[in-house]
From TrEMBL:
FAD-binding domain boundaries: 5-344
Residue intervals passing through the bilayer: 6-26
Alphabetical list of Gene3D superfamilies matching this protein: FAD/NAD(P)-binding domain
Organism: Thioclava litoralis
Entry-linked Pfam families: FAD_binding_3
EC number: 1.14.13.113
Protein name (record): FAD-dependent urate hydroxylase
Coiled-coil segments: none
Cofactor section: FAD
Length: 397
């Protein structure tokens, strides 16, 4: 089989993993990214065992372990009273999956992937404006006038994907009803235990803290996020984010107040959360979608990055040893679309329960948490993990 070329549009987690995966099977890969400086959107990622399994498959197990936080337990806390609603170990999940999950800093993870892939093969400041199939190749045109050709193109260009627009036309993004603030702070036992994913819940809101790897100073860190249901469309100034959080979570328990006080006002991210109704067309001819361009989801299952990493591994599998690229891309679509549609809709349903779309339903969930042993929550996570394309390589017998 002659060496095939691929252009990947987008240097996010999914695009970089796809580049690493396809290079492993002999493809010549170039990545084009529209921004001139890569600044990840969002401070952290929850990488559950299905995502970690796929990273191990790509030869990145040691690297991701070094970046990850040691998360041994999970706890839900009443946001108003500070009472523990439930707390339980994650060990049964790690044991059944054959591997543990890791919360990680998004920026550090993206930097690692760029180093592994090779920064010299990533072109920054390249905004795609047009795609055109020409026989057995695809021509890409960029805003600066550059043209590039390859045997196929992967659109890993995120929720606002131009590659998806080329394939399907514009799709409507659905506002999920809440704003997410997120960032990173130094570990503080007065905020949460260093080995626990701790989530404060009340009033249809969340304040959540996960341990991630140490910073440059060697200090352990927490990735945090806050969720606040509110209408879309506000554009507050960044310098006001902290005071807005203080207002939204006024009266909440002392650890939440301590977390807000510890946050660097200039480093808090604010994101209005959207998703897109699942669709089944991920590939046409020599062009395909991957990651958020194919399955834009709310973060309520913590599976966005894991889904993109899974995409990369399945794409590698379907393209291995074949010259029939269009057929391989159709096989990739067939293998991925149904699983990802299910996860998008499950995340949407969880989002509604968590964020008080029906207050009575949310109150029932709070009551369930007060009686939770961990078994039901871990079973729900395990259901997702068991769909990993490499699950059988790791899972306990």
């Amino acid at each position: 089989m002659s060496t095939k070329t691929v252009m990947i549009i987008g240097a996010g987690i999914g695009g970089l993993c796809a580049g690493i995966a396809l290079r492993r099977i002999g493809f010549e890969v170039r990545i084009f990214e529209k921004v001139r400086e890569v600044r990840p959107v969002g401070a952290g990622l929850s990488l559950w065992p299905n995502g970690i399994q796929c990273l191990h498959h790509l030869g990145l197990g040691a690297q991701i372990r070094d970046l990850g936080g040691q998360m041994e337990r999970m706890a839900y806390i009443d946001g108003l009273t500070g009472e523990t609603m439930c707390a339980f170990p994650l060990t049964p999940l790690w044991n059944s999956a054959g591997i543990r999950g890791y919360p990680v800093a998004r920026a550090a993870t993206q930097e690692m992937l760029m180093d592994v892939f090779g920064r010299e093969h990533i072109a920054l400041g390249m905004r795609l404006v047009a795609l055109q199939e020409e026989g057995a190749q695809v021509l890409a045109r960029f805003a600066d006038g550059t043209e590039s050709r390859a045997d196929f193109v992967i659109g890993a260009d995120g929720a606002h994907s131009l590659v998806r627009d080329h394939l399907l036309g514009p799709l409507e993004r659905r506002y999920a009803g809440y704003v997410n603030w997120n960032g990173i702070v130094d570990m503080d036992a007065a905020i949460a235990p260093a080995d626990c994913w701790t989530t404060f819940v009340a009033q249809g809101k969340r304040a959540s803290i996960m341990p991630i790897g140490a910073g440059e100073n060697g200090q352990g860190r927490f990735y945090f996020f806050f969720d606040q249901p509110m209408p879309a469309g506000d554009t507050p100034a960044r310098e006001d984010y902290k005071s807005l959080l203080q207002g939204c979570f006024s009266g909440w328990a002392e650890p939440v107040q301590r977390l807000i006080a510890a946050a660097d006002a200039g480093a808090i991210n604010r994101v209005e959360i959207h998703d897109i109704d699942p669709f089944s067309t991920w590939a046409k001819g020599r062009i395909c979608l991957l990651g958020d361009s194919a399955h834009n989801t709310t973060p309520d299952l913590g599976q966005g990055a894991c889904m993109a990493i899974e995409d990369a591994v399945v794409l590698e599998e379907k393209l291995r040893g074949t010259d029939d690229i269009p057929a391989a891309l159709q096989a990739y679509q067939q293998a991925r679309a149904a699983r990802c549609a299910d996860l998008v809709l499950r995340a949407r349903a969880r989002c509604d329960v968590t964020h008080g779309v029906d207050p009575a339903v949310t109150e029932r969930w709070y009551d369930e948490l007060r009686h939770e042993t961990g078994a039901a929550i871990l079973a729900g996570i395990a259901k997702t993990v068991e769909g990993s394309p490499v699950y059988a390589e790791f899972a306990a017998g």
